[in-house]
Design goal:
By secondary structure, this protein is mainly beta. It has one domain: Rieske Iron-sulfur Protein. The chain contains no helices and eleven strands. The strands form three sheets. It has a four-stranded antiparallel sheet with strand order 2-3-4-9, with no helix packed on it. A four-stranded antiparallel sheet has the order 5-6-7-8, with no helix packed on it. Strand 6 and strand 7 form a beta hairpin. It is globular. The protein starts with a strand and ends with a strand. The structure holds FE2/S2 (inorganic) cluster (FES). The site of FE2/S2 (inorganic) cluster has 10 residues, from loops.
Length: 102
């Protein structure tokens, strides 16, 4: 695992999620009620980006077919996806959002 400063805390406002390129991967940073979460930015259903979807009740809703994933665990909470998304440890250091990636 290595830590990467992905964005600044004010880049992702509460209720927002954005995609960032980190070490050759797309990482989704979500701000749910002031807490940051990090996941892969790739839906396991049909490889769509999740960044243009919605944050609903602590879940990511995919913009393509409405599949949902739990922000904390990456577990599928609404079909059609069959497989979870990866989640990554995230913390803030000063005004930076820092994500640990493999
Ligand atoms: S690509 Fe995400 S639900 Fe289909």
């Amino acid at each position: 695992m290595a830590n990467f400063a992905v964005a600044k805390t004010n880049d992702v406002k509460p209720g927002q999620m954005k995609s960032f390129a980190v070490n050759g991967k797309r990482v989704l940073i979500a701000n749910w009620e002031g807490t940051f979460f990090a996941t892969q930015d790739l839906c396991t259903h049909d490889n769509g980006t999740l960044a243009d979807g919605e944050l609903v009740d602590g879940e990511i809703e995919c913009p393509r077919h409405g599949g949902r994933f739990d922000l904390k665990t990456g577990a599928v909470t609404a079909l059609p996806p069959m497989f979870p998304i990866k989640t990554f440890p995230v913390k803030t250091e000063g005004d930076h959002i820092v994500v640990a990636l493999e």
